[in-house]
Amino acid sequence: MAAYGVSPQPCTLEKAFQINVTDSLLLVERAINAGISRLFLCGTCMEYGRNAENLEFIPANTAFAPVGAYAASKAAQSMAIAALCQERNIPLTILRLFSVYGEGQHPDNFWPSLRRAALGGDDFPMSPGEQIRDFIPVEQVAQAFLKALELPPSALRSPLVANVGTGHPQTLLGFAEHWWKKRGATGKLLPSALPYRDSEVMRYVPEVKS
Q1: 13-204: what CATH class?
Q2: Considering only Cβ atoms within 10 Å of each terminal Cβ, which end of the chain, N or C, has fewer?
Q3: How far apart are CA 109 and CA 50, in angstroms?
Q4: What span, in angstroms and rounded, lies between the C-alpha atoms of 151 and 153?
């Protein structure tokens, strides 16, 4: 589940591929050699990249079009580990996470920053907030992994790839307004005070199957 370059941490292409692809593949190979019988891989919606913007709901078999070093390395990781597991006949489950938020998140991510400003009585500058996302609490993500663990390997095709999200899109601004009100914030939300990020993908919404 660990990976190099998760936002908002800095990320270089060379180091992303070294850690997320080469080193991760070595780890998995050693685990297989040690006798593991099944593997779970935590993926990301960012692997879909630009292809996500053309779809109302993204199927899990959508082709990759990643933007940036982190996303590209995660897409390559998925393909490399899937190939190794197929070669070694190891059942593989890939769960691709969408916009996870909650306790334990990096303090400079959107939700923790929003909470900090709300509780501190500060204003909160942000982009215009028109990005459409599927925000999912980390507790629901944990439940998705536990549910996947309960499936017997004999019932799985390998790799089994699934999106982890709610299937309920909302804008970033709408998400911010909800939590701003919920926290009883006395400061002001300041949409459009910041620009969009370079190469921002404006829509990430999964097709979610029960």
Answers
A1: alpha beta
A2: C
A3: 22
A4: 6
pLDDT of residue 170: 97
Q: Report the phi/psi class of residue 169: left, alpha or beta, with left for phi > 0 and alpha for psi in -120 to 50.
A: beta
In this prediction, residue 157 carries a pLDDT of 66
Question: Buried b / exposed e across 85-107, counting CB within 10 Å, b at 16+?
Answer: beeeebbbbbbbbbbbbeeebee
Residue 176, pLDDT score? 98
Q: For the chain, give the number of residues.
A: 210
Measuring CA to CA, which residue among 59, 89, 64 is closest to residue 77? Answer: 64
Which is nearest to 13 in space by CA: 74, 78, 98?
A: 74
CA distance 86 to 84: 5
- The domain locations on the chain are 13-204
Q: Is the dihedral of CA 144, 145, 150, 151 positive or negative?
A: positive
